[in-house]
Write a structure and sequence with these properties.
With 836 residues, the chain is α/β, with parallel strands linked by helices. The chain contains 23 helices and 36 strands. The structure holds 5'-O-[(S)-ethoxy(hydroxy)phosphoryl]adenosine.
């Protein structure tokens, strides 16, 4: 059992050892952690453009289950002859075409190509020919460009390999494109919020040409105690160009509002006090509860009153380290109600990581629980918090109050360690508070929360979001990307410890008055059918999860899914990493019974909300593509010189202008904000992701191009892992890279050099992994430790990660030029020690 407590899963699921390394996403060139070479990395940003040099971004080679081609050509024939292909979430789908198209996993579906008549492609697609009446604007089809027959476009070999723009990386990226279009049926489209490409184009055009009017109209639907300032018709100001001065973004400044009021009071005042706001499903089946909007408001008010009573004021930080109880979103909303800044730390992080975050944001109060069961595993959260608070104290910061929720199902109060004077039971102080709590009206630009995320150094980044723009944007993206209809039940499997739990389990849905499901457990406990049992239990209409969960469940076969009806499902969602076509297909076909569109949403902690996402009903989907930009989002794919590329291309994914939920800074470190995100490509926000745009303007995310590894949708900085490894007294040096992992998307592959004279041993391997678990958290544990007598370095001492990635991926014959290494002999040694 490997703990996989990830962005969208809240607990451990079974992961196999990687069957084979299949290439690695990401590219970087930087030094690993070394005691010899001057200690830990992370004492300062790696050079901002290091990922631009000597980098290779090799993505996954073929997944054997997706690369068959013979049945693909059969399908082509059958579909071409029928002329029209729609997925079965289109009533006009041809079932025979579909069953042909979506044959069993691993039998050629991915390779299928279809002739698609122009009649069914609402997107106006033209090959981009800059300067000849450009058909693309920022890679999206421009309104007014003429429609072309997609047959020729789509009947090319679909899983093709494309060299990235020569300048984009020294390596190559493989884009797994599945040029199969799935379109929602007419019934679905008729009722969809965005029911056609024309409607999208019209709205998109307005959103980028006149963002102030576009977003003001939407913002007006919320409650503002005082309306925002309008200067020269503008409701936002921004500078995205470091050459023009400090980076700054503001939306709706001067406006006074409160996100908690908009998420709860507004609905209660509209007569919805008795509607269910949240179904809570415990780890143990049968252990559940539901809270109405009225209940939720009462609870939030009580917690906010308590926080006030212990001196928490507007602008103060509160750290929340809790499992997925109702009390977790309640605590977040309570902070928001009084203008305090919440900083949720995923309750899978270790004491060291928690201490690091506490020391950074200096909270007045920590809210936690004594323990939690995840599957069959008990996690003693209280001892982790105690340890973190002790560490913080030793380093000079004392947290005065620690409120502990007694989670009686997981552990007993009597068995909980206690620090008198600091620790207080939640149940002793919250229920006695008044259920009336005055709202603190805050400026739209006042901070709402801090959320730490991994970067390319050992020090996590405190991503700071402000209130007004975040509120407007998360609510709007939720509504459109899931085509949410009032009254629907929505389940997001994310933990509130990650951005998805903030924006799409708490704020986005509640702002829309949606009923959300909050699940404490793991998808495979007590069995692999748990998710679908929950879907049936609450009649879930919209289900949002991560590819890693989909792949883990897919391995268990169709039976656990088919045992349950799932007929309530209407829309499916995916987030966290690129979804491979085989998983997409299984999700679509088996989970969604070929009826539900899949919204593959690309976004980040930094963006706060969806950036590139389907709007089901708006246009056809291509498995593996996040499709098109959301309203107001202006993506740009650039080459290594920061030159924007047009039309079909591959390169670095940037954004040209602000959107309302742009993060405003990195807490306490605005220079790092500018250096990391705005300095690499002048005039743009740089996402850290690679991206391909196809002939039809669809966006395909290809993974991180910096030193961040995406494990089960978790961002883990390779430098953080390296730093943890060299903390072990016997580890002299470490270099960590990602490699393709069957379930997790990417796994962690660590090359470790031991101090002189120390022997390799299995015990040492375990100790090193334990070190990472205790320094970061179990989810960051390396999957593979590769003993390295030496690391491949240039003469200037820089580790050539490109070579390490190839070795990790077992692509020994693709090592490329090693002659520039100080000692080319180390490569052979490393190859020899692979799998030892
Ligand atoms: C990756 C999670 C491809 C990407 C919301 C991004 C994705 C990082 C997708 C952000 C997607 C997220 N397709 N890649 N649909 N969604 N990513 O900050 O590399 O935890 O930069 O936010 O996850 O991770 P974060």
């Amino acid at each position: 059992m490997t703990t996989l407590s990830c962005g969208v899963l809240s607990g451990p699921i079974c992961c196999p050892a990687p069957s084979s390394a299949r290439g690695v996403r990401g590219a970087a060139g930087s030094s690993g952690a070394s005691k010899r070479s001057g200690g830990r990395p992370g004492n300062g940003e790696r050079e901002p453009s290091s990922f631009l040099s000597a980098s290779s971004a090799s993505a996954s080679a073929s997944d054997s289950s997706t690369s068959s081609s013979s049945s693909g050509s059969d399908i082509t024939a059958s579909c071409s002859s029928s002329g029209v292909f729609r997925g079965r979430f289109g009533a006009r789908a041809s079932p025979s075409a579909l069953s042909g198209a979506a044959g069993r996993v691993g039998r050629g579906w991915t390779g299928a190509t279809f002739g698609i008549s122009r009649a069914i492609c609402p997107l106006r697609c033209m090959a981009p020919t800059p300067g000849t009446g450009a058909a693309f604007t920022n890679g999206r089809p421009a309104a007014g460009s003429s429609q072309v027959d997609l047959t020729s476009v789509l009947s090319v070999d679909t899983r093709y390999k494309t060299e990235t723009h020569a300048a984009a990386s020294a390596g190559e990226q493989v884009v797994e494109e599945t040029q199969v279009l799935f379109e929602a049926n007419e019934e679905f489209r008729k009722n969809a919020l965005v029911s056609s490409t024309e409607k999208y184009e019209e709205m998109y055009k307005q959103s980028v040409e006149d963002p102030d009017t576009f977003w003001s109209e939407i913002a007006s639907q919320f409650h503002w105690e005082k309306k925002w300032d309008v200067t020269d018709g503008k409701v936002h100001t921004e500078n995205f160009d470091v050459r023009k001065g400090p980076i700054k973004v503001e939306w709706f400044k001067g406006g006074k509002t409160n996100i908690c009021y908009n998420a709860l009071d507004r609905h209660v005042e509209a007569g919805r006090a008795n509607d269910v706001a949240m179904f809570w499903e415990g780890n143990e089946p049968g252990y559940d509860s539901s809270v109405t909007f009225g209940n939720l408001l009462d609870l939030v008010s009580q917690v906010s009153n308590y926080l006030r009573s212990v001196g928490v004021k507007k602008g103060d930080a509160v750290v929340i380290y809790m499992p997925m109880l109702v009390e977790l979103p309640v605590a977040m909303l309570a902070c928001a109600r009084i203008g305090a800044i919440h900083s949720v730390v995923f309750a899978g992080f270790s004491a060291d990581s928690l201490a690091q975050r506490i020391l950074d944001c200096k909270p007045k109060v920590v809210l936690t629980a004594n323990g939690v069961m995840r599957g069959t595993k008990f996690i003693n959260l209280k001892t982790i918090v105690d340890d973190a608070l002790k560490q913080a104290k030793q380093e000079g910061y004392t947290v005065e109050t620690s409120v502990v929720f007694a989670n009686e199902v997981a552990t007993k109060k009597e068995e909980t360690a206690w620090v008198e004077g600091r620790d207080i039971w939640w149940q002793d102080v919250i229920p006695s508070q008044s259920t009336k709590s005055e709202v603190e009206w805050v400026d739209a630009e006042d901070p709402l929360f801090l959320l730490y995320t991994s970067g390319s150094t050992g020090k996590p980044k405190g991503v700071l979001h402000s209130t007004g723009g975040y509120m407007v944007y998360t609510a709007t993206t939720f509504k459109h990307a899931f085509d949410y209809r009032p009254g629907e039940v929505y389940w997001c499997t994310a933990d509130c410890g990650w951005i998805t739990g903030h924006s799409y389990l708490t704020y986005g849905p509640l702002l829309n008055g949606a009923t959300v499901v909050n699940f404490e457990g793991v998808p495979t406990y007590p069995d692999a059918g748990r998710c679908w049992e929950i879907v049936d239990k609450y009649n879930v209409n919209i289900f949002y999860t991560a590819p890693t969960a989909i792949r883990a469940l897919m391995r268990e076969g169709d039976k656990p899914v088919k045992k349950h009806s799932r007929k309530s499902l209407r829309v499916l969602g995916s987030v966290g990493e690129p979804i491979n076509p085989a998983a997409w297909k299984w999700y679509y076909e088996v989970v969604g019974d070929s009826r539900c569109p899949i919204s593959d949403t690309w976004w980040q902690t930094e963006t706060g909300g969806f950036m590139i996402t389907p709007m089901p009903g708006g246009w056809p989907l291509k498995p593996g593509s996040a499709t098109f930009p959301f309203f107001g989002v202006q993506p740009a794919i650039v080459d290594e010189n920061g030159k924007e590329l047009h039309g079909e291309c591959s390169g670095y994914l940037c954004v040209k202008a602000s959107w309302p939920s742009t993060f405003r800074t990195l807490f306490g470190d605005h220079p790092r904000y500018e250096t990391t995100y705005f300095a690499p490509f002048k005039g743009f926000y740089f996402s850290g992701d690679g991206c391909h745009r196809d002939k039809d303007g669809y966006y395909w995310l290809t993974g991180r191009v910096d030193d961040v590894i995406n494990v089960s949708g978790h961002r883990i900085g390779s430098a953080e892992v390296e730093s943890a490894l060299v903390h072990h007294p016997l580890c002299a040096e470490a270099a960590v890279v990602g490699y393709d992992h069957e379930v997790k998307g990417q796994g962690i592959y660590a090359f470790v050099t031991l101090v002189e004279g120390v022997e390799y041993s299995d015990k040492l391997r375990k100790d090193l992994i334990a070190k990472v678990r205790s320094q970061i958290g179990p989810f960051a544990a390396p999957d593979i430790i590769h003993w390295a007598p030496g690391l491949p370095k240039t003469r200037s001492g820089k580790i050539m990660r490109r070579i390490l990635r190839k070795i990790a991926a077992n692509q020994i014959d693709e090592l490329g030029d090693v002659s520039t290494l100080a000692d080319p002999g180390v490569v052979e040694q490393l190859i020899e020690l692979r799998d030892k």
